[in-house]
Design a protein that fits this description.
51% of the residues lie in helices and 14% in strands. It contains twelve helices and nine strands. The longest helix has 24 residues, at 82-105. It is globular, with a radius of gyration of 20 Å.
């Protein structure tokens, strides 16, 4: 697919989706938001793509929401009726939320490779990803508080599940900056690499390892972990029993067992 704000390509089984406004620090404007949703749909619907890597061109992952786009919100939702204007604003917020929720909705795992700034909306974006890795120069900040607004597209809902409620409150209340090493210590990211090149090489290796596994099993595992996050243990156990009643007896199971017995890499259908 062709995008104005993204650069998307498929290399074997790994799809790389890069934010592509380097001259603007990959600031998130409305076209980029819409293209992120479309890119996640492309990743989900492309059988050959087994895993996605989300990164950014230039010096930063993303410097957050484009302030020009934010300033234009008033004109976009303007209406002589206050009630209708507020309804339009609510619908716009829900639309922006859905662009990031599309990452969770995508059946394929999405790995964020973060370098430089990951500010404001960038934190909303990466917390929706399955896995997060960064380079040592990465800096994170829930910057919405400094704009006099409540973060509203995912950080306040997802960040506490990653770093704990107390630390999420501290970061959201103060807007303070977290570097790559602290992000790893807080478990915001799985690992902090020394350089951007090491980050990209490491993430490619992890993506290749994911892509080598049964695509059906990977899709089921993502579904189950995401479901378990938001439901009770009993509900999640019941769901996985139902899921595997439908999915367990696939061609991938005997292939994995045969490959192990023959000491070779398994070959799975997309």
């Amino acid at each position: 697919m062709t995008y104005e704000r993204l650069d998307a390509r498929l290399d074997g089984a790994v799809a790389t989706i890069a934010l592509n406004r380097p001259e603007k620090g990959n600031a998130l404007d409305l076209p980029m938001w819409h293209e992120l949703r479309a890119a996640m749909r492309w990743l989900d619907e492309t059988p050959e793509a087994r895993v996605g890597v989300l990164t950014g061109h230039g010096n930063h992952f993303t410097t957050g929401i484009d302030l020009g786009a934010l300033a234009a919100v008033g004109a976009k939702v303007a209406d002589p009726c206050d009630g209708r204007a507020r309804e339009k604003l609510r619908n716009l917020i829900l639309e922006l939320q859905d662009a990031f929720t599309a990452i969770e909705r995508c059946r394929k795992p999405v790995i964020a490779a973060i370098h430089g700034a990951c500010i404001g909306g960038g934190v909303d974006l990466v917390t929706a990803c399955d896995l997060r890795y960064c380079s040592a120069d990465a800096v994170f900040s829930v910057r919405e508080i400094d704009l006099g607004m409540t973060a509203d597209v995912g950080t306040l809902q997802r960040l506490p599940k990653l770093v704990g409620e107390g630390m999420a409150r501290e970061l959201a209340y103060t807007g303070r900056t977290v570097d790559g090493a602290e992000a790893q210590a807080l478990r915001l990211v799985n690992r902090c690499f020394d350089t951007k090149s090491e980050l990209l090489a490491g993430v490619r290796e992890i993506a290749a390892a994911v892509a080598a596994r049964s695509p059906l099993a990977i899709r089921g595992t993502k579904e189950m972990i995401t479901y378990a996050r938001d439901h009770t243990v009993a509900d999640a156990l019941n769901y996985v029993a139902t899921w595997n009643a439908a999915m367990l007896l696939s061609a991938d199971l005997p292939e994995a067992m045969t490959a192990a017995r023959e000491k070779r890499a398994p070959k799975f259908r997309d």
